[in-house]
Amino acid sequence: KPYGDHGFHYDAMLNHPEIFDVVAHPIGSHKLKESIAPNDFLWGNTTFWEESEFNNVEGAAKKGAGIIKLGLSSGFFGCLMTHEQRIATLSANEFEETLRRIDSSLSDCEKIFASYDEIAEYFYNHSQSKLKEVKIEGSKISCWLSGESAIPLKLFIFREEKDEIRRGPHTIPPFSGEVEVVL
Questions:
Q1: Global pTM?
Q2: Contacts with 106 (C-beta within 8 Å, 6 or more apart), sequence order
Q3: Residue 132: what are its φ and ψ, rounded to 5°?
């Protein structure tokens, strides 16, 4: 919890707090039942180790899109992961077509593209800060945060408008100590 899969987590390692771990690999997820290795989108879809009789572009794209959608729908992030030996069995066209199909399958999802390093840095800084208090006075929202962040963080405000929930991101500049943010 809270992401719906034990393969989604971020935190300092228990016995090594100097190491901050960020993972978005649905390990053994019941939500990806058709998969042998649910975190590798090419596993079972290439000729490597005779896992498939042919390079299955359609199957790989379906699995890859499913993995990313699981991360996004869990309120986490989506991560497309595989191993180089499976990529090596694909032609450049097969690999590019797989990625095109994944992208097309995700056209209805809001995406922010970032490297794993950027995501890990964001989660680390997020974990170093706390939302202490929120006050709403008319249309003014005041938020108090404590801790620190060396990078800008996002704070999302959800509003109900005409039977629809709208989400609005607000950027919090880097801070240290306590800060009030008025939205």
A1: 0.84
A2: 65, 68, 69
A3: -85, -40
Rounded Cα distance, 50 and 79, in Å = 25
Collapsed DSSP state (helix, strand, coil) of residue 175:
strand
**pLDDT of 87-104, one tens digit each?**
999 999 999 999 999 999
20 DSSP β-pair partners: 12
Among residues 151, 7, 167, which one has the least CA distance to residue 79? 7
Q: What is the DSSP letter of 40?
A: -
Q: Which three-class secondary structure state does DSSP give residue 80?
A: coil
CA 93 to chain centre: 27
Per DSSP, the three-state class of 94 is: helix
Nearest one of 20, 25, 17, 53 to 41, comparing CA atoms: 25
